[in-house]
Specification:
Elements (H helix, E strand, L loop, with lengths): L2 E6 L3 H13 L2 E6 L2 H7 L7 E5 L1 E2 L2 E2 H10 L8 E5 L4 H9 L4 E4 L4 H15 L8 E3 L2 E4 L4 E4 L2 E3 L3 H12 L4 E2 L1 H9 L8 H13 L9 E4 L3 E4 L5
Parallel strand pairs: 1-2, 1-3, 3-6, 6-7
Antiparallel strand pairs: 4-5, 8-9, 9-10, 10-11, 12-14, 13-14
Helix pairs in contact: 6-7, 6-8
Length: about 230
């Protein structure tokens, strides 16, 4: 079954372009030209994701996003805000309203799909047995193999678990404590700085192909696995 994505956008040419891009990438696009149509389309089976314009006939996309995130039935649906507003303050407003990401018009199809896939992976992580591939880095949980640009990568079991967790939760910052809980487990006592050691080992294992750049240090917060190299 195709995964449905709801496009809420009042400009028809943009809606048609978004529908075409999503269709080309294997998604089923559902279109709404105003807030009332969008509200009518958010019903079971719920869309996998909502692409939501900032300003809409009949109301504010930002306010509707807040409403979606308040209600039990819809709060788990990821939302990407689409808008011409590019100011930092506007981005913060959109994210504070509960949006999972923010794309400023004009955007490229490649950028849009990268954001869509990253948000879906982040909100609904892949199953534990599913092969994951990001930017040429491929991890197979069943065979316990890692490939970087078609070359085999050797790493220890802890580094493998760490990479698996990162790749199934991209674009989100995790503190050392959160990584310890998720990778080592809450029943194991390990010092926080042990995380740094294994991060270094993991980066070294994938540095030959440049994939170490995907594992980013966020000062004062922790680590992030990013599909967008900075």
């Amino acid at each position: 079954m195709q995964r449905r994505i709801l496009i809420v956008e009042d400009e028809q040419p943009i809606r048609e372009m978004l529908s075409f891009i999503l269709d080309q990438n294997g998604y089923q696009a559902v279109e709404a030209g105003d807030l009332a149509q969008a509200q009518a389309l958010v019903r079971e089976p719920f869309p996998e994701l909502i692409l939501l314009d900032w300003m809409l006939p009949g109301g504010s996309g930002v306010q509707w996003c807040k409403q979606l995130k308040r209600e039990d039935a819809t709060r788990q649906i990821p939302v990407i805000m689409l808008t011409a507003r590019g100011e930092e303050e506007d981005k913060v407003r959109g994210l504070e309203a509960g949006a999972d990401d923010y794309v400023t018009k004009p955007f490229s199809p490649k950028e849009l799909m990268a954001r869509v896939k990253a948000v879906i992976r982040r909100v609904k992580p892949t199953s534990l047995d599913e092969v994951i591939e990001i930017q040429g880095l491929r991890l197979d949980p069943v065979s316990h193999r890692v490939m970087a640009d078609n070359s085999s990568v050797d790493m220890g079991p802890t580094e493998f678990r760490l990479l698996h967790f990162f790749m199934t939760h991209p674009e989100r910052v995790y503190s050392r404590e959160q990584l310890l809980d998720n990778v080592w487990g809450t029943a194991v006592y390990v010092e926080d700085r042990t995380v740094d050691v294994h991060i270094r080992r993991l980066r070294k294992a994938i540095e030959t192909t440049g994939h170490d750049r995907l594992i980013q240090t966020v000062r004062g917060a922790g680590y992030r696995f990013s599909t967008r190299v900075e």
